[in-house]
Amino acid sequence: MKVSSFWNIVIKIIGLFLTIDLIPILPQFVMTIYTQIIKNEFVSSLFIIVILIFYFLALRVLFFKTDWIIKKLKLNDGFNEDSFSLNIPRNTVLNIAIILIGAIFLINSIPELVEKIQIYFREKSMFYDGDYEETPDKSWIMLHLIQCVIGFLAIRNSKKLANFIESKNSDETNSEILD
Predict the structure, then answer these.
(1) Cα(89)–Cα(94) distance, integer angstroms
(2) How confident is the model over 6-41, as pLDDT tens digits?
(3) Could you tell me the residue range of the domain that residue 136 belongs to?
(4) What are phi and psi of 135, to 5 degrees?
């Protein structure tokens, strides 16, 4: 395995972790933007939108511009050899990383889902026994259910995701060579 291939994999794994970290906070950002727009505080909502754009641009660079990061950070410098023996294809390592991240995501979200369901039914039985028009909040249940589904889908479709990331990276590398 070449040193640059190793760094490509590490950078893409960092991108996967940042993507997983974005999923729980994205609904909070959307609600904050919505609240700020209702309160006519456009400067703070604009600030949050700029943060989200920066985050998505960083993810794009981490997934599809890894060679640029390696060159700018000079990650290949300081190695005596051009390659080292680790005979695992990049696609397989990405596949394993996606499975592990999906499993971590699933493992973290299942207990939260169970806890939020328990809280929902407890609140429903204690406070909302038919006297009120309102029902307990279901948004956290939906969020953790979506996280469970995303974790499951990441595990189930890890090869397709790894192939997609690799194909986009090779497409951009080929277009840079042709230009």
Answers:
(1) 9
(2) 888 888 888 888 887 787 788 878 888 888 888 887
(3) 3-178
(4) -125, 160
